[in-house]
């Protein structure tokens, strides 16, 4: 049973939401939803008002990611988990190589392993708390890894695998807990995909992808071959990337989307761009992360889980606690005081705190969080 610790109000953050996804939604987004509720919610997503909303999102993300010539923004329902299956159906021709170093980077590889029309994937495994990129492998036509491993708080480089272009292989990077929080050059990828419930402060159930001309051509070729007589491959309409892109070009989704999610996402993308875009957002996240890592390094009971400082995430920070301090009790006491969603990833099974420091989180609230943890540990 958690001991009751009443944290002095003077120490508490203004907003106690530190989730790694779903993440904090700003009051202005809720206000936008209230306004949209009178004009957009409950209306057709095929009509001009909602299509204008989608157009604003696509234009805003194009600006935020500084899209190279020929790159396009696509979107659809189902979240990043659906995009894994879509990539298996529409982007991997025969065989993929994966960097796996946590729960989420492993899940995509499991989807590829289960696809009956694909060859067994090649796995390059890293231990939790580290990352490992896939290496150039004969016969591989797609390389995949996660920019940020949400389960462990590790960020990995985003760069093309040397020699992969000569193979005509494409690069697929999961940006779900990185996009909007970590710097990225999308020209180093062919599909940089993510869900909006992290840095983009919206609800889940939607995927977005930055697609290169090579990815678009690959999807067209794969789906064409699947339609040939005798083909073993099946591309369900829901997992057709060409259909998703065709609809995105019309500023809509293949299936009915959550308009509320679109409203909040559009407001967040505009807010990020108005404040300075990627440069501003990533600097803000880096500041918040440095507060947490610096505090942990000075602490006599806490330390950063990721030992390589260059691999430490600036969006999801993981902090190990000494065995004498129960993370479960600390998390419980924080929750009783309105500071929520700071537990470590359950499958990792460590005595750990995990703190989302996405752009919506105020760095001053991160500083207050560290003081509250110190107070709780002292008084438990």
Automatic annotation (TrEMBL):
Its EC number is 2.6.1.52. Belongs to the class-V pyridoxal-phosphate-dependent aminotransferase family. SerC subfamily. Pathway: Amino-acid biosynthesis; L-serine biosynthesis; L-serine from 3-phospho-D-glycerate: step 2/3. Its cofactor is pyridoxal 5'-phosphate. Residues 136-345 form the Aminotransferase class V domain. NCBIfam families: serC_3 (TIGR01366). GO terms for molecular function: alanine-glyoxylate transaminase activity; L-serine-pyruvate transaminase activity; O-phospho-L-serine:2-oxoglutarate aminotransferase activity. GO terms for biological process: glycine biosynthetic process, by transamination of glyoxylate; L-serine biosynthetic process; pyridoxine biosynthetic process. This is phosphoserine transaminase. Keywords: Amino-acid biosynthesis, Aminotransferase, Cytoplasm, Pyridoxal phosphate, Pyridoxine biosynthesis, Serine biosynthesis, Transferase. It comes from the Bacteria. It is an enzyme of class 2 (transferase). It catalyses: 4-(phosphooxy)-L-threonine + 2-oxoglutarate = (R)-3-hydroxy-2-oxo-4-phosphooxybutanoate + L-glutamate; O-phospho-L-serine + 2-oxoglutarate = 3-phosphooxypyruvate + L-glutamate. Catalyzes the reversible conversion of 3-phosphohydroxypyruvate to phosphoserine and of 3-hydroxy-2-oxo-4-phosphonooxybutanoate to phosphohydroxythreonine.
